[in-house]
Structure formats: C-alpha cells, structure tokens
Write a structure and sequence with these properties.
Pfam family, one: Epimerase
Distance between the termini: 33 Å
Catalytic activity: UDP-alpha-D-glucose = UDP-alpha-D-galactose
Largest sheet: 7 strands, parallel
EC number: 5.1.3.2
Bound molecules: uridine-5'-diphosphate
Number of helices: 10
Strand order of the largest sheet: 3-2-1-4-5-6-11
Cofactor: NAD(+)
Keywords: Carbohydrate metabolism, Isomerase, NAD
Shape: globular
C-alpha cells in the first residue's frame, strides 16, 4: 500500500486515477487548486487544496502525509489556448512542475508518474506514432510537456529518482459506475460536445475540416478510455514501487476513429440525431494521430479493456445524463 500525492486529482484523468488507486489498496492524496477541477470529483482520499507554484503549500502536504510517490496530472491542456496564451502554459506546466520536483527533492521523494501527451510528437511523419519517433511539438502545450519530460530525465540522472512518462492520446469515456466523468468549462472536446448537441445543450456540432487526406475527409484520433488510462497509472506506480527503472510509454488503443465515425456512433448509442454541420479546419490539427506501439503492454502488462468507441461513448453518455458535477 502506497500513499500517492495526486496533483490535479480533482480533474478528469486525475480523479479516475484516484479511484483506481483506492481500488488497488493505495491512498490518493489529492493536491488541486480547483482552477479546472471539481470538488465533487474528490471522493477517494484526502484533499490538500493548493497550488503547485506555492512551495509552502507543497511543503505542508509532504509534511502531513508520508508520500511514497507522486502522480502529476495538474496542467493546462488545451492546444488552441496554448497558442493564444503561451506564457500561462509555460508557467503552469513547466514552472509548476519545477516547483513540484523541487519539493519532491526537499522531501526525499523520487518516484513520479507524469501525464505527457502525443502532442509532444508534433506532425507525425508516418501513419502511427511510437515512442522512438522524434519529438518535435508544434504548439506551446506540446512544448511545455516535452520540456517537463527532459526535466524529469535530468532530475532522475542527478538525484537517482525514477519516473514513468505516459504520452496520452485522446482520453474519453467516464467511470462506468457514473461516480465521476468528463466535465470542462468551456468544453472543447469532441465527444462531450457531440453529446451536448444530442441533448440539445448546444445547437449543433461543427466538424472541423472535411478535406483531410483520410477516408472520409475528417480527422482521425486514437481515443482511449479514461479507466484504461487510470489502470495504466496504477501499473506505472507499482512498477516504480517495485524498483523498476524509468519509462516513457504511449497510451492509446492503436485504433483510429474519424470525427464522422464519432458522430455516427453517438447517434447509434443515444438513438437520437446529432445535429452537425461541416466547417473549416481548426488550426494546429494533424490529420491522423494513432498510437502504434505495444510497449506499455510489454513493460507493464497493460492492455486497453474499455476503449472500443461504442463503450467509450456509452459510458460518456451515461455520465452526461447524470447532469455532472455541481459548480
Ligand atoms: N473536433 C471537431 N469539432 C469540435 C471539436 C473537435 O471536429 O467541435 C475534432 C478536432 O478537430 C479533432 C477531434 O475532433 O480532430 C478531436 O478533438 P478534441 O478537441 O476532442 O481533442 P484533440 O485531438 O484536440 O486533443
């Protein structure tokens, strides 16, 4: 049993990781500033409210709990926003992680599981992305996450810590028991927006680009169920606790789905029409991002279990119909 500091534990992926940690017998201590998280999502362990950029708040949480390892989710994560306000991304994602790593060093904690992103690869040269592909991000969000990856490597080399870096593809779905789920303000992600359109909470969904070099002309993404991501995090943690060395692993399903396929599947799952219109491309969107590696399975025994598109949309729809967290 480990006590795990979970930064961003009130957020989408972080809260699902907390549930999985508790189910595996660990204690998740949530550290969150509630800039985007939800109080209703903190239900699997103690809460320490605070900001990564506040060293005293970090010192307090490390002093109050015997932390064995850290899972670091807290970050800003919108590609488009990162282009508009890059310094907010460098501050939160890079300076925030720097502050966290300094606190870990002060308190003698060396193990960390870090949420990185397939956006660190930039425009893929081939049809699938593997961990050995060059990392050349094309937006400040991806740049900030790649910088943290490098900071982790330098820190481990100097101080002997170990880390698991997970490069997520598109997180989707919700807790199958409807305790927690995806909720962003404003919402920008495809599946929740499609479900909002189905439910009449927005007039329609706009398809961003229909002239991509893909079979139906719309962008292809690799959607991965959030509970599969959470399972990978527990495995990554246990790998580190067992003395395993540092790893960097993609977390995707290996299957790509177009925007049109998502819309059609949402119509099938809900039994309702999806009001949709075609629109121009969204700047910065690569045509196709799909994970092409079994490295997470080889190293951690991890395999996606709920990441077929229909199950992800069913779980997201069941959560959507609960009405979500209270503001
Ligand atoms: N997308 C879309 N309409 C929307 C939101 C997203 O067509 O209103 C497309 C977007 O261009 C991308 C895919 O859906 O190809 C997934 O976008 P999302 O923002 O969910 O995730 P991202 O891939 O940017 O991390």
């Amino acid at each position: 049993m480990a006590t795990v500091l979970v930064t961003g534990g009130a957020g989408y992926v972080g809260s699902h990781a907390c549930k999985a940690l508790k189910a595996a017998g660990h204690v998740p201590v949530v550290f969150d500033n509630f800039s985007t998280g939800w109080r209703g999502a903190v239900r699997y362990g103690p809460l320490a409210e605070g900001d990564l950029l506040d060293p005293a708040a970090l010192d307090r949480v490390f002093a109050a709990h015997a932390i064995d390892a850290v899972m670091h989710f807290a970050a800003l994560s919108y590609v488009g926003e990162s282009v508009r306000v890059p310094l907010a991304y460098w501050r939160n994602n890079l300076a925030g992680t720097l502050s966290l790593l300094e606190a870990m060093t002060r308190h003698g904690v060396g193990r960390i599981v870090f949420s990185s992103t397939c956006a660190t690869y930039g425009e893929p040269a081939g049809t699938v992305l593997t961990e050995t592909d060059a990392q050349a991000p094309i937006n400040p969000y991806g740049q900030s996450k790649l910088a943290v990856e490098r900071m982790l490597a330098d820190t481990a080399a100097a101080h002997g810590g170990s880390h698991v870096i997970f490069r997520y593809f598109n997180a989707a779905g919700a807790d199958p028991y409807r305790e927690i789920g995806e909720q962003h303000v404003p919402e920008t992600h495809l599946i929740p927006l499609v479900l909002d359109a189905v439910a009449g909470k927005r007039a329609r969904i706009t398809v961003f680009g229909t002239d991509y070099p893909t079979p139906d002309g719309t962008c292809i993404r690799d959607y991965i169920h959030v509970t599969d991501l959470a399972d990978a995090h527990v495995r990554g943690l246990e790998h580190l606790l067992a003395g395993g060395g540092s790893l960097a692993l993609n977390l995707g399903s290996g299957s790509g789905h177009s925007v049109r396929a998502v819309i059609e599947t949402a119509a099938a799952v809900t039994g309702l029409p999806v009001p949709a219109e075609d629109g121009p491309r969204r700047p910065g969107d690569p045509a196709r991002l799909v994970s092409g590696s079994g490295l997470a399975e080889a190293r951690l025994g991890w395999r996606p279990r709920r990441s077929d598109l229909r199950t992800m949309i069913e779980d997201a729809w069941a959560w959507h119909r609960t009405g979500g967290f209270e503001a």
